[in-house]
């Protein structure tokens, strides 16, 4: 009846989220969220097929939030340009811009494509790599010296293990991929210890927020162990890329404009990565 790649929802949750079946066994399916970075499992009898995922209420709401988030990033960018242009009137000659460079490691190829498209639209230099969550530490060790980014995004899918015998949500073993994200952050901090020289955004839905911060992330999910939207890490990374190195990223402002808010993402005071240079060259 079911096959890998089928688009489904869970009857027990009222069909609130749309998933793609990633793996099957005789009784259970492993599911990856299409619009949310949630990794879940469900009994096959709990699944219902979603014939038109584009018109599903959860998908429509999530995409409305994406559009709003991208719009806010564009408004922020235009306001920044106006501010810098006004200041440039008093400073000759005109300067050129260097937004922070991003390395984006993603456990989901579709989300990676969406993220890279937004970076391009915003004019942010970025390189992306689709890599399974279990291999992210190795990917970080390999790619960081080659790419030399200002900002590292480590994300994919995660979730609390259903019916785990370990009830304590502070136990890293109670999460599906948080352990792998923590390992990747630690590997990144072996490459660059300073949180100002390398800003790290890490985690996915319901990830172990405290463990990620302790490992060295600047921003992480999820303080309230809630679902985060696929593009919340992108929003934070873009804000870091466009905040001047003279300034710290406005933590409250950047988090409240994510789609999941303060329950979904938290962080610590961090310096921006945006630089200006002279002279401006005609291309």
Molecular structure report:
By secondary structure, this protein is of the alpha/beta class. The chain has two domains: 7-55, SH3 type barrels; 64-277, Response regulator (Rossmann fold). The chain contains eight helices and 13 strands. The protein has helices at residues 57-89, 109-122, 136-147, 178-191, 209-215, 232-242, 251-256, 261-264, and strands at residues 7-10, 19-24, 28-33, 39-43, 47-49, 96-98, 102-106, 126-130, 151-155, 199-202, 219-220, 266-267, 275-277. The strands form three sheets. The chain has a six-stranded mixed beta sheet, sandwiched between helices. It has a five-stranded antiparallel beta sheet with strand order 4-3-2-1-5, with no helix packed on it. Helix 1 (57-89) packs parallel to helix 6 (232-242) and helix 3 (136-147) packs parallel to helix 4. The longest helix has 33 residues, at 57-89. The termini are far apart. The model has no long low-confidence stretch (mean pLDDT 87).
């Amino acid at each position: 009846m079911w096959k890998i790649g089928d688009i489904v929802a869970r009857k027990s949750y009222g069909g609130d989220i749309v998933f793609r079946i990633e793996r099957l066994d005789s009784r259970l399916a492993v599911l990856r969220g299409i619009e949310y970075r949630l990794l879940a499992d469900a009994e096959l009898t709990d699944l219902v097929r979603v014939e038109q995922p584009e018109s599903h209420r959860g998908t429509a709401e999530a995409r409305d939030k994406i559009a709003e988030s991208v719009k806010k990033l564009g408004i922020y960018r235009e306001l920044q340009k106006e501010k810098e242009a006004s200041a440039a009137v008093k400073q000759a000659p005109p300067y050129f811009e260097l937004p922070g460079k991003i390395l984006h490691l993603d456990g989901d190829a579709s989300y990676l494509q969406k993220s890279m498209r937004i970076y391009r639209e915003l004019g942010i230099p970025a390189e992306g790599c689709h890599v399974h969550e279990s291999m992210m530490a190795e990917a970080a060790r390999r790619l960081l010296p080659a790419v030399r980014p200002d900002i590292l995004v480590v994300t994919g899918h995660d979730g609390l293990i259903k019916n785990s015998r370990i009830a304590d949500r502070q136990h890293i073993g109670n999460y599906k991929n948080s352990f792998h994200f923590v390992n990747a952050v630690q590997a990144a901090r072996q490459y660059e210890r300073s949180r100002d020289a390398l800003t790290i955004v890490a985690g996915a839905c319901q990830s172990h927020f405290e463990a990620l911060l302790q490992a060295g992330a600047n921003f992480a999910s999820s303080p309230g162990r809630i679902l985060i939207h696929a593009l919340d890490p992108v929003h934070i990374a873009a804000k870091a890329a466009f905040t001047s190195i003279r300034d710290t990223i406005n933590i409250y402002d950047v988090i409240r404009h994510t789609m999941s808010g303060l329950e979904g993402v938290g962080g610590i005071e961090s310096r921006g990565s945006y630089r200006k240079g002279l002279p401006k060259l005609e291309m």
